[in-house]
Amino acid sequence: MDRAQLCAIPAQRLMPGFIRAVYCPDTIGAFEEGTDRGDPLAGLTPEQLEYIRQLIDAIYEGRAITASYNVFIVGIIAVFAVLHWREQKRDEQKWAAIQQQDASKRLTSGSQLAESGASTPSSSSSSTVVQTAHIITPKDKVDVDLERLPLLADSRPSNSCPSKFITNRLKSWLLYQPPPIPFIDRVLPSNGTSLFILSWLALNIFIQFYRLPLKWSFFFIFADRAGFLFIVNLPLLYLLSAKNQPLCRLTGYSYEALNIFHRRVGEWMCFVAVVHFISMLLYQFVIAEDWLLASQSPKEYFTHPLILFGIGSFVSYELLFFTSLGSFRQRWYELFLASHIILQVAALGFLWGHFYTSRPYVVIALAIFLIDRLVWRMGVKRVAMEMDLKKLDGETYLVSGDWDVLPGAKGILAGWEPTDHVFLTVPALGGSHKLQAHPFTIASAAPGKGVGEDGKTKHAWCSLLIRVQFGNFGFTRQLLEYAGTSDRVEVEIDGPYGSPHASSMLRASKNVILVAGGSGIAVTLPLVWALLHESASQANSEEDDDEDKRLLSSRKRSGRSGRKVHMLWVTHSWWHQEWIPKEQLDELVALGLDLVVPKSTMEAGRPDVHGIVDQWIRDADGDTSVLVSGPDGLNRVVRNVAAGAVRQGRDVRVAVEKFGW
């Protein structure tokens, strides 16, 4: 690279203003304005020119390496999409086999019933809950500290094959969730999730240091690459934050599961932003030689437009990080929502002005943000309606409504699937509430989407179970107070959103275990309802007017289907058990549900969740799918019980549905 080529490089495409003097030390103004005020490289020695050439080559090479990051990301997503597609196909095949098996059993049982001349079927439900009372009262008080239970059993795997032994141990270890970090009480995800996040971090660190000149004179390359590593992560960060992201469908993971990764991406970006900022200051004021610097004084340096834009971007993203912390988000959720939108827009604007090479990534991130927030969520999925308000206790209330699911309806009016959630806005609360949207899981049975298979119109009953969150202020408390003065409210609902992975997994299993902690019943109840009523509908479609077929259908409703469904509901107070009508639970028990609702933890202490779930898994004949939705401690215990069963060679899959506030 000769002198003419050096001066022909557009400075704004290469590096910030303070380092442009790396090849134009005395005529920075002339170079920026494109005027000719002499040779910008005059007076430099051959050694200095060679250093400049190497520095510029290293900068371009580093940016080319860093730009390949998103190629790796697309490849990783493609791998997960293929794995999810294969799992989905297997689940569909298993579900079809279960349906066929149930049909065969019904035909066989019908023939035997006709031959025996039986006139009245006997109930064979294995439920531990009788239909006249759904509350379980243990003979002895069980007060077990879930955090102190052994999480992985020492029993040997049932399969003595060495490869199977190793595979089971590996699967169990990946599924296992360690206890929270001591002192700071930070909840850790499963080992598999942690391993994936660490692998992603390793990819970022590898890109940061790959072919990096390890010399103090090239320290600017390290600082520059950290800044570029920040901007190449922008599309991934905004994609993971979007409600209408394709990653849920491609990978099968729920939004909340992907949100864990979104937070780690944001934390890493804020970290590399700090590295970039501090490294640039070190280079400017400690490492760089005077002949390289365009800004000789701190005032001149910090008032340069490019530096001001950089500081604005840095401060905006760091504020985003601090306002996204769990403690801040839970205590001041409304402020979190408002600051997230304002700071994101400001940060992207500052980044556009600070770093020329960042502009394509800024455009992509802004497009994702606008399409998700404005075009799709507000224009396509948001609907306004009037809903009922009903207080259930001093801290809990129900927001509910019903309507016919009509063809061509949009948003929630078109129906939803089990485990879907929505964002609720209540303009009637006034003030900033018109701009706030709060997430809630739909706690009622899902009608599905569109018209029924028989062409009949479906009717949707939509209920949102809401508990007051964190103190006496905020949206949930104000809406509870509003419920004390009115039993109807105008709302805007954005949604539904969710992933079908959990319901597909449960449908494909012969043995299903669902565990709910408190308001986690909002997740498990629609799934149980869908599983049992789906089987009932299938049986009803095969009935005719023959008396024996009707008797067979009645026996099927008593639990003689090919799938066994268990549900454990742990509540803190006895009145929480009144959230779900007893008649609704009785109907599910009549359809074959094995339901356990222990006395509340306030009355009898913590139930033996470990023992109950472990016994259900041991009694299972065939594969088992487990879904848990509750507080972190409960989720961890259930996950680790399943991990112990996998370690012993059992076929167990787990899904955790936790929606954070």
From TrEMBL:
GO process terms (BP): copper ion import; intracellular iron ion homeostasis; iron ion transport
Domain of life: Eukaryota
InterPro entries: FAD-bd_8, FAD-bd_FR_type, Fe3_Rdtase_TM_dom, Ferric/Cupric_Reductase, FNR_nucleotide-bd
Pfam family, one: Ferric_reduct
Region described as Disordered: spans on this chain: 107-126
Transmembrane segments: 67-85, 192-210, 216-240, 268-286, 306-328, 335-355, 361-380, 512-532
Keywords linked to the UniProt accession: Glycoprotein, Ion transport, Membrane, Transmembrane, Transmembrane helix, Transport
Residue span(s) of domain FAD-binding FR-type: 358-503
Mode of membrane association: Multi-pass membrane protein
Subcellular location field: Membrane
GO CC aspect terms: plasma membrane
Any one GO MF annotation of this record: ferric-chelate reductase activity
Biased composition annotated in UniProt, kind: Low complexity: 116-126
UniProt protein name: Ferric reductase transmembrane component
Species of origin: Triangularia verruculosa
